Amino acid sequence: VLDTRTNLMWAAKDNETNINWKEAKSYCENYRGGGYTDWRMPTQDELAGLYESSKSYRSACGHDVHLTELIRLTCEAPWSSETSGSDATFFDFLDGLQPWTRQSYDSPYRALPVRSGK
């Protein structure tokens, strides 16, 4: 899914299961959607750019997420690339918050690959 405002290309769906930060980073880096090999984990700001409070749909885990339906999240919280010690950030598409948590936690976190659309 190409975001023409930011020129970022997003995977059309997340990894569909609970995943910790290290596994999410690996998933994003090894993702091969569209035949591209330069996928990566998004930053907080990139994820925040997808948040749209006026749009929502129900994710598979039962929460309303606020972003375009072109990108399907199975739960509300994709990991982002920022870390500090054993903590990492995620973006919560339920309420737009950007909290920190332990990298080892896996629920309800997901991986959502992104790349430059060039």
Q: What number is the mean pLDDT?
A: 97
- Count the DSSP helices: 2
- Tell me the distance between the termini: 13 Å
Class derived from helix and strand content:
alpha+beta
Whole-angstrom Rg: 13 Å
Order of helices and strands: EEHHEEEEEEE
Strand order of the largest sheet: 7-6-5-8
What overall geometry do the principal axes of the alpha carbons give?
A: globular
Compute the number of strand runs: 9
Largest sheet: 4 strands, mixed
Strand content: 15-25%
Low-confidence stretches: none
Helix content: 10-25%
Report what the structure shows.
This protein is of the alpha+beta class and 118 residues long. It is 13% helix and 25% strand. The strands form 3 sheets. Strands 7-6-5-8 form a 4-stranded mixed beta sheet. It is globular and about 35 Å long.
